[in-house]
């Protein structure tokens, strides 16, 4: 009888070991941003989510912009064409333009939270435990933004939700915002309007002066890394704009269209830099963002190198 129990315990232990080897490490969360005005999970995206064990999607729900009356209003609301994958947690993410935070926010926190909850209910999005705000605040807008976050955090908590915000590199030297956690945006490190800047999306040398603040930053952090590319139009070596799709604006004869996108080597170099300064910030790795082009850029084993803790 004892032998049988030992055998069963051994088999159970063996099954647990096998299962554990096929799942993420205890401190590893694999996530992606979904930054589009249309939500559509096709077979390519679903296969990537499954293969690389993505468990969290930060989905941009809408932007908040200033209208003609100088009042914040929603813009570019996402349209859902497919259901959310059952295997992932959803974090509704709201982008706020900096000019919205140059004045007191008033009841903006109420309006944003109400809109998020309504969208969740309308589209049967159940697996939401957190919301995220994205704003490139500056010292001039910081206090209004932080007051807004404190208000929103209190209201979100009353609805069982955590609050996070994005943290840009230049914001690491500033006071941490009043939220539950932050996401360090490890991208947009250079001047994309300069034709001579070859790494405007990600350059570890440019990021280095900001990263020195990382170890002492007073907020739990995850880190987001870029997959995207920019097709940038220059006319007589002067910046015209980023060409997101072919007919977005006219490209004149003689214009230069340069492509900028980070290599796998640069992304891994950036990840190593974060590991050296604050390893916990890589316990959740987020890729920006979930498009078919982006997720086909690298080989599966290269994505595993980026995502592994």
Structure characterization notes:
The two termini are 42 Å apart. The protein contains 8 helices and 14 strands. The chain has helices at 2-21, 43-51, 108-122, 142-158, 204-211, 264-278, 292-295, 300-307; strands at 29-34, 38-39, 56-66, 72-75, 79-80, 89-96, 130-134, 162-168, 181-185, 221-226, 230-235, 238-242, 256-260, 284-288. The relative contact order is 0.13. 31% of the residues lie in helices and 25% in strands. By secondary structure, it is an alpha/beta fold. Helix 3 (108-122) crosses helix 4 (142-158). An 8-stranded parallel β-barrel has the order 1-3-6-7-8-9-10-14. It has a 3-stranded antiparallel beta sheet with strand order 12-11-13, with no helix packed on it. It is globular and about 55 Å long.
What is the structure about, briefly put?
The protein is an alpha/beta fold. It has helices at about 1-20, 45-50, 110-120, 140-160, 205-210, 265-280, 290-295, 300-305; strands at about 30-35, 40, 55-65, 70-75, 80, 90-95, 130-135, 160-170, 180-185, 220-225, 230-235, 240, 255-260, 285-290.
């Amino acid at each position: 009888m004892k032998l049988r129990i030992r055998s069963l315990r051994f088999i159970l232990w063996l099954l647990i070991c096998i299962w554990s080897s096929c799942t993420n490490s205890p401190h590893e969360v694999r996530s992606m941003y979904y930054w589009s005005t249309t939500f559509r999970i096709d077979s390519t995206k679903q296969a990537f989510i499954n293969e690389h064990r993505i468990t969290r999607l930060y989905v941009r729900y809408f932007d908040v912009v200033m209208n003609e009356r100088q009042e914040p209003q929603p813009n570019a609301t996402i349209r859902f064409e497919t259901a959310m994958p059952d295997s992932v947690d959803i974090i509704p993410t709201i982008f706020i333009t900096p000019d919205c935070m140059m004045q007191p926010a008033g009841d903006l926190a109420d309006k944003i939270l109400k809109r998020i909850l309504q969208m969740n209910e309308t589209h049967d999005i159940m697996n939401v435990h957190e919301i995220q705000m994205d704003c490139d605040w500056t010292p001039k807008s910081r206090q209004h933004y932080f007051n807004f976050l404190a208000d929103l955090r209190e209201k979100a908590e009353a609805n069982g939700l955590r609050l996070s915000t994005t943290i840009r590199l230049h914001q690491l030297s500033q006071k941490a915002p009043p939220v539950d956690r932050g996401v360090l945006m490890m991208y947009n490190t250079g001047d994309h309007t300069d034709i001579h800047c070859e790494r405007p999306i990600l350059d570890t040398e440019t990021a280095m002066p900001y990263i020195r603040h990382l170890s002492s930053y007073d907020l739990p952090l995850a880190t987001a890394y870029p997959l995207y590319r920019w097709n940038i139009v220059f006319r007589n070596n002067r910046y015209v704009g980023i060409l997101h799709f072919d007919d977005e604006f006219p490209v004149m004869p003689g214009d230069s269209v340069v492509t900028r996108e980070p290599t796998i080597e640069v992304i891994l170099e950036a990840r190593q830099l974060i590991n050296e300064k604050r390893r916990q910030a890589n316990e959740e790795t987020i890729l920006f963002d979930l498009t078919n082009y982006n997720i086909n850029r690298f080989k599966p084993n290269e994505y595993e190198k980026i995502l592994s803790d």
